[in-house]
Amino acid sequence: MQIYLDYSATTPTRQEAIATMQTVLTQQWGNPSSLHEWGQRAATVLEQARMQVAGLINASAESIIFTSGGTEADNLAIMGVARLYRQPQHIIISSVEHSAISEPARLLEQSGWEVTRLCVNHQGKVNPLDLKAALQDNTVLVSIIYGQSEVGTVQPIAELGKIARSVGVLFHTDAVQLAGRLPLNVQNLPVDLLSISSHKIYGPQGAGALYVRPGVELVPILGGGGQEQRSRSGTQAVPVIAGFGVAAELAAQEMATETPRLMQLRDRLFSQLTDVPGLIPTGDLVDRLPHHVSFCLEHADGEKVSGRSLVRELNRAGIGVSAGAACNSGKLSPSPILLAMGYSEKAAFASVRMTLGRDTIEADVDWVAMVFKQVLQRLSQTRLYSYEKPLLRASTRLYNSHL
Fold first, then answer.
1. Cβ proximity of 49 and 187 under 8 Å
2. pTM of the entire structure?
3. What is the pLDDT of residues 45-84, one digit of tens each?
4. Which of 4, 109, 139, 198 is most open to solvent, judged by the fewest CB atoms within 10 Å of its CB?
């Protein structure tokens, strides 16, 4: 048996999107910039997908710029605004941004730009008063992640965006983790730029979108043929975008029932892990992504118990999760997100994320909680023991009884 609990990393492409992609690949494969019939068939597919993606966030179709994914959408937002200015200015981000934001900000900083990184509290949340205090006369952009991918905290974007708008500063949010899981309405939300990604909502990998509020200017980061309203050059990946559109439309239709179901499963998993000694939930437990469970072991022995070791042992048991700590050049680094939230290095090494999805059921949650406790007990001992077959057979019977 295998249980996938890493839906924040990527989601399996849903069959409806695959079927649409197959049709486009075989029947509507033209270049959408071409004026002949083959090109116009592809252009029709492209615009249909644009309307579907726009519908997910209640935007106008013309405000959607297709990209290769969330990372490119974030980069286009940051660098597209920065290139409007001949002289370095000031931007504001949070200390818990995805690297698709923090890395472009670092590059701008190397070019003379001033970057303010707002501190967060122990739950990973930005204080709106800190944003207000950080604004300067030369601030041109604020970018705050909507739903933090590692710890699940949902930021007060409406309040933060209102502060930026009150002084005429552009506001961008990376909504990659939130789109399709919680409602988004850019007509009411005070944002100028918003990034989403196909493969986080059961669409194919390789497509994303940047919402650009009408009237907002961006300088392209790619030179070429001027596709996507001259904002993103390059022949569009029509089959992939078509799958993205289908996934977006279905996510919007299913959100009312899927989101509360995920919340129940999330809370069930949290509750089954509350009796694990030293296990600390991370992120805001109220303002939280509906599918997201994360925690760390604050007093873990890093030589025996780390996020990576937990991921490795759970994988051997057929369970897919992820860790916050990263391995760079063979050296394990603690999670920078948890460090920014005030956790110790020891805790930041021993962090785990479990994210739920369309295929997750109660029996999966119960099984994962039980196996996780077994894994943690074994890792905490002097040496690792292999799984005992009788115990696994009994556990399998327990799992099957829930199906």
1. no
2. 0.92
3. 999 999 999 999 999 999 999 999 999 999 999 999 999 9
4. 109
